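Contributing new complexes? Match this layout with adenosine-5'-triphosphate.
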Amino acid sequence: MEEIPPDHPRAESLIIRKRLALAFQQGIVVPEGLAAHGRGEAFDYLLGERTIPPAISAAKAGIALMLLAEKSVISVNGNAAALVPAELVELAKLTRSELEVNLFHPSKEREQKIARLLVESGANQVLGIEPEYETTIPELSSARRKVDRRGIAQADVVLVPLEDGDRTEALKRMGKKVIAIDLNPLSRTSLSADVTIVDNIVRALPLMCKLARELPKDKEYLQEIVRAFNNKENLSQCLRTIVRRLEELAGGSHLSQEPSR
Ligand code: ATP
Ligand code: MG
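Output block (do not edit by hand):
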């Protein structure tokens, strides 16, 4: 990563891209994952590349759901593993969740590489990689419906960072509570999840770990957080935040400034 100058105005974003590019070379991320990241980046730009207040509320509701769950599972794909491996492992430990490798573009080799990365980051067990435990999500085309019978198949709560809309809807039809992390408040994933955290996974995961550590573990308190949360209302606040910011930028001095590069 040395070649990215730390004083570059977009250093953080460039470091994340570099990390994904390296993970692509290692066979952890697929080319489609790089394109999906680009869509996320565009929304992050509109949000001001920061965690907005509605995302903090959603992260609280998501952690409350995970702490209250009978069995919660964190679904891990290539991009998530490349960007926040240690935080995924930490969140699993803090919330007593399973980690399950679950890929939109499945391949045995990539599953093994992602599982190895999670183990190197401290995971004790990684589901989704042993064929004898394979079962299927109904109503999804064959390659994309594989899940672990010890994990997502029996979970009541599933965290899906960067998931596809079809699969989120299928998990909902199976009666699961779904928590999504998705920078795009308009995606089908965002609209169909029970709790959508509109934030970059690189900020959302550390925030969720902090909340999992700090939120009181009182059941009624956690249930009240879940009851008070309304995902549609939260998504609408996320969109309003973007609209307000764009209005300010459109009317302000921003447009008369010289570009910094
Ligand atoms: P959907 O299938 O839900 O309608 P989509 O087809 O537009 O969404 P996918 O490619 O299926 O998008 O899923 C990738 C999603 O992940 C995108 O909505 C993108 O905004 C989001 N995303 C990409 N990178 C990040 C990131 N680092 N943090 C959070 N979200 C991200
Ligand atoms: Mg999609």
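Reviewers usually confirm one structural detail per submission. For this one: Residues 231-251 form the longest helix (21 residues).
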